[in-house]
Amino acid sequence: MRVAVVGGGPGGLYAAALLKRLDPSRSVTVHERNAPDDTFGFGVVLSDETLGGIEHADPAVYAALQREFVRWDDIDIVHRGRTLTSGGHGFAALGRRRLLAVLHDRCRELGVDLRFRSEAPPPDELAASHDLVVAADGVHSTTRDAFAGVFRPQVTTHRCRYIWLAADFALDAFRFEIAETEHGVLQLHAYPYEMAGEVGPGASTVIVEAREEVWRAAGLDKLDEHGSAEQCAKLFPETLAGRPLRGNNSQWIAFRTVVNERWSHGNVVLLGDAAHTAHFSIGSGTKLAVEDALALAACVEEQPDLPAALAAYEEERRPVVLSTQRAARGSLEWFEDLATCTGQPPRQFAFNLLTRSRRVTHDNLRLRDPGFVAGVEAEAGVPEGTPPMFTPFRLGGLTLRNRIVVSAMDMYSAEDGAPDGAADAGTSGVPGDFHLVHLGARALGGAGLVMTEMVCVSPDGRITPGCTGLWSPEQEAAWSRVTRFVHTQSPGTAIGVQLGHSGRKGSTKVMWEGIDEPLPEGNWPVVAPSPLPYREGVNQVPHALTAVEMAAVREEFADSARRAARAGFDLLELHCAHGYLLSSFLSPLTNRRTDAYGGGIEGRLRFPLEVFDAVREVWPRERAMTVRVSATDWAEGGITPEESLRVAAAFSDHGADAIDVSTGQVVAEERPDFGRSYQTPYADRIRNTLGVPVIAVGAISSWDDVNSLLLAGRADLCALGRPHLYDPHWTLHAAADQDYAGPGAPWPVQYRAGSRKPPTGRTDAPKPRLTL
């Protein structure tokens, strides 16, 4: 096998070494355009997991690296002159030049042909003359560009500028320092990579980062490498104490996230930054490249032929990379929006920073450094022995005993309330026994607040024939039965109603028969701000509401709110999300009106605010009222981050007690960035920019995530949907799992005997001796 590796970075060199070690008969050549010791940056951080893989794959490389590594456990966070330290993290780093030198030596020892200071032949020539071409040529990969039509790369440039520098002394911890200047916020990320000793004073990598507009306002865009290093050294006195910084062909650049639809084409395969990038704030670039190299070499060795090997390599690595990229994106965006968090109390700020990527959580940070977490909880007023999720929260005139909300989930199971089979749309939408048991079970399950599904304000405002409503006396009486059960059988649990109108997404089948698909018969007309169907050629073209018709819809909302108050609900939520009627007024993708109800965000807000005001006027003042919004449309040309802040601020100014922050479902062509807790950064931004209470939603699935979000100050309440379908007693079980038995999660008297997890069959019993 003839192998060409394009790029002499750590990933390319390690791949070359492993491929040659596993089969010495292979001819392996590395093409590197630069000199052997030319490299960007200074230090490289590797995890214990990655080091374990290196040790298993090539003990010689591992032994050489072991002699070079600097190890430490602490993270220091400097904020407004105060340093907070969290321990137990475990890092290992070494100089990038030393890493390359170790890999150069190993490649030469194995017989790899290293060619420096020469460009690789064109990719198509390499592919024709070799059995395997490994493109490890970095974020600006020429190999990837040559076959862009196959790899289909997507490159996203982000909002911060950063520069790699170094300090000639060794820090004793990973260090973050925040500089709040007249121009805005800048941040320092720093760590040691060479300890002080006989050969010198040691060294540390120092990365300085700032939003593009801050970078320009501070004049850093006009400085050369020396001037930038000099200016940056003055910004961070706690870490640098007047000591200078130096560069290495250092430039201010914007981070670019690289994603490829495919990683291989014929016998050409992408590796490391050529295939994917992840932000440096989670220390992942070299780690991912080295892990790629290990997986590629293993798959080539294990699989029967090259196509199978490259397919197995991508199948193995893609999920790991996507998970890392999601975490890196969370970390990157946290630093982009850092200015919204700097006003937090110091310990909460430090906890927020440490948990920013969602890979470090409340629970595992408590294992690493229990004293640090105890200090954060004490500063936040969390009673000793109480998980943050079981602290009370006041929402308007309503006090919730804990921070868990059963999210509104459509059940599509309404009954027909007409007598003698005289069914029609005017008598449909009655909640029945299913709703009593469904909502009652979740109320008994311990959540602080249980929300109904979206309850429709009119027959034509239904999504499906199975949707519940609140436009008739029969519906009001049926909902009264549900609230009465909750208040009687689960005292202390609040129940809320979510009022909405389907708009252009109405007159469709129930979810399990075909979500968003039109009914085969019996359709009713749908309405919207503009005559734009949800899906062209599939869904109805909606009628564009006139001013008179909007006034009628507004009164329908108010009438339903009156019925909700009489039915005994504790909280009312106005549904302005997910592409339903009020949401479709807010989004520029669905509102193309040219009158006072369209255009800029003020016009698009007008009707939703009129509805909110009408509901707030009739909803009892002592009862809480919230609004659910979609903070992004996940589609080009949709609502902007600045507009979503304007929307949240407007509803808060008009009297909303909290903003329930969801995303998307506005247009069919959306491309959501799914992942664990993927919507919570939008709640975080609204809460910490505007200072308004928020409910976070979106794939929050564990009590550990809930505690982390609350303690970091990213949310006030957490709404969970599917976990409560899986386990109606999710909240009580979360309390049991955390050995909590306080007032935030009381078990119903009928269920107290089951408040401890049942024992399971033993799997660790002593085995009998069967041989001498």
TrEMBL record:
What sequence ranges are listed for the domain FAD-binding? 2-322
Locate the region Disordered: 743-772
Q: Where is the NADH:flavin oxidoreductase/NADH oxidase N-terminal domain?
A: 389-735
What is an example of a GO molecular function annotated in this UniProt entry? NADP binding
Highest taxon in the source lineage: Bacteria
Pfam families cross-referenced by the UniProt entry: FAD_binding_3, Oxidored_FMN
Protein name according to UniProt: Salicylyl-CoA 5-hydroxylase
